[in-house]
Amino acid sequence: MTKEPSADSVVGCPAGRTSDSADFGSETVTSHHFGEEGAKLTYGSYLRLEQLLSAQVLESDPPAHDELLFITIHQVYELWFKQLLHEVDAATEAMFAGRLWWAKHLLKRVAVIEDVLIRQIAVLETMTPQDFLVFRELLSPASGFQSAQFRELEFASGAKDPTYIKRFRGLTEAEQERLARRLEAPGLWDGFVHAVSSSGLSAGTEEELLASLVVVARDRDKYGELWELAEALLDHDEAAALWRARHVTMVERQIGTKSGTGGSTGAPYLRSRLGLHYFPLLWELRSSL
Ligand code: HEM
Ligand SMILES: N[C@@H](CC(=O)c1ccccc1NC=O)C(=O)O
């Protein structure tokens, strides 16, 4: 299908798709077909709004007022998780290909998206615990613990804990396969280590790598690009840590010390994950400077 407006579509508009004049408030646009240009695409069809906007299906009946917000927030998260995986994969590939500027560019985007994910917790916190309790029980045994994309992101960022695959209940076969593949596939850290050794620094062992990172940090004239890349990775790591901390404070505000719908101890389990670092060596480096 051509993207150029064809003579046919300009003159004889396909039925129901476009008209000879569109009224944009005070301006009437004629003959230009602004925004349609004879193509068959519309805003709604391009963005698959029919599917997207019919995917908010409440469990509560009669509908609990806040359940739509709860679903919307989670769906928005999953869309951003998909985008984050896209960027993280491309950044990993870029580091293996020696395109460090591109990896850094993408990682900066990752951190900005993660900032949005942290800040949007405040939207869900406008829900009171009483209003959550109207539909909370209906959610059990589902939980954010079962978000395959969240775990994929952890794996791709270097936190590869294979026990998570087994501990998940209710993952689809496809999700399990994706996670298993992620366990094997190189992640961000592998890409970074490759970049370090490609620049002539030794990276065979953890000790060598740490020593090389000290060299990088102390000679930014020479290793500026690697240094900035390491900082971009740390931004991602820090943003993930901030999200975990923000999530657990919200959880305590919503359910106190109750156990989780996913079967964990709830806040205590989440607190046990707060010390997680994707790139521990980049944090250790601080003590070695
Ligand atoms: C009222 C709001 C929320 C509450 C009370 C809540 C509560 C919990 C609890 C108790 C857990 C531990 C697992 C379990 O259920 O036993 C958990 C895990 C999790 N939640 Fe939430 N959550 C909320 C909102 C969200 C949102 C908006 C997201 C965004 C995707 C999210 C993502 C996750 C993830 C990814 C985990 C697994 C964390 C890990 O294993 O480290 N949660 N949540
Ligand atoms: N685990 C939460 C319920 C919850 O927040 C949730 C339930 C289903 C799907 C996603 C959820 N979000 C994060 O855990 C709770 O125990 O209240």
TrEMBL record:
EC number: 1.13.11.11
Catalyses which reaction(s): L-tryptophan + O2 = N-formyl-L-kynurenine
Binding site residues for heme: H247
Keyword Metal-binding: yes
UniProt xrefs under Gene3D superfamilies: 1.20.58.480
Pfam families: Trp_dioxygenase
Keywords: Dioxygenase, Heme, Iron, Metal-binding, Oxidoreductase, Tryptophan catabolism
Region (Disordered): 1-29
Binding positions for substrate per the UniProt entry: F70, I71, T72, I73, H74, R136, T261
Record flagged with keyword Metal-binding: yes
Pathway(s) annotated for this protein in UniProt: Amino-acid degradation; L-tryptophan degradation via kynurenine pathway; L-kynurenine from L-tryptophan: step 1/2
Free-text cofactor note: Binds 1 heme group per subunit.
Entry cofactors: heme
Transmembrane segments: none
Family, as annotated: Belongs to the tryptophan 2,3-dioxygenase family.
Subunit and partners: Homotetramer.
HAMAP family: T23O (MF_01972)
Role summary: Heme-dependent dioxygenase that catalyzes the oxidative cleavage of the L-tryptophan (L-Trp) pyrrole ring and converts L-tryptophan to N-formyl-L-kynurenine. Catalyzes the oxidative cleavage of the indole moiety.
Listed name of the protein: Tryptophan 2,3-dioxygenase
Gene, per the UniProt record: kynA
